[in-house]
Amino acid sequence: MTKKNDDRFFIIAEMLRREDCMEEIFENTIIDRYFLHKIKAIVDFENEIRKAPKSVKILRRAKERGYSDGFISRAWNMTEREIYDF
User: Fold this and answer.
1) How confident is the model over 29-77, as pLDDT tens digits?
2) Which pLDDT belongs to residue 36?
3) Which residue from 13, 31, 48, 49 lies 20 to 30 Å from 75 (Cα-Cα)?
4) How far, CA to CA in Å, does 1 sit from each of 8, 17, 39, 65?
5) Residue 12: CB partners within 8 Å, gap ≥ 6?
6) Alpha helix locations (H) across 1-86?
7) How many whole angstroms from its chain centre is CA 21?
8) d(CA 36, CA 70)
9) By the 8 A CB rule, do 70 and 49 touch?
10) Please, are residues 85 and 62 in contact by the beta-carbon 8 Å criterion?
């Protein structure tokens, strides 16, 4: 995680998904807390998508935030076409 490469973002997101301590992540990466909170907000919204299948409100927010039909379909166990038609 201390290596500065493209994979670090995904590792940090996964650590936040597993509810690792944000302060510990900060201490190990020295990434500004502002950006860590932004990554956490993305992870939290991904969880919100997963917990609300077939919610028009969540679908609208997800599409406004740039989530793909593919991501949403996997989260909701639907096909991309079903998401598109929804």
Assistant:
1) 889 999 999 999 999 999 999 999 999 999 999 999 999 999 999 999 9
2) 94
3) 31
4) 6, 15, 15, 27
5) 1, 25, 29, 31, 36, 39
6) 7-17, 22-29, 33-51, 56-64, 69-76, 80-85
7) 17
8) 25
9) no
10) no
Q: What is the Rg, in whole angstroms, of the alpha carbon atoms belonging to the chain?
A: 15
pTM recorded for the entire structure: 0.82
| Pair of tokens at residue 84 | 């598109």
Q: What angle separates helix 33-51 from helix 56-64, to the nearest 10 degrees?
A: 150
Secondary structure (3-state) at 20: coil
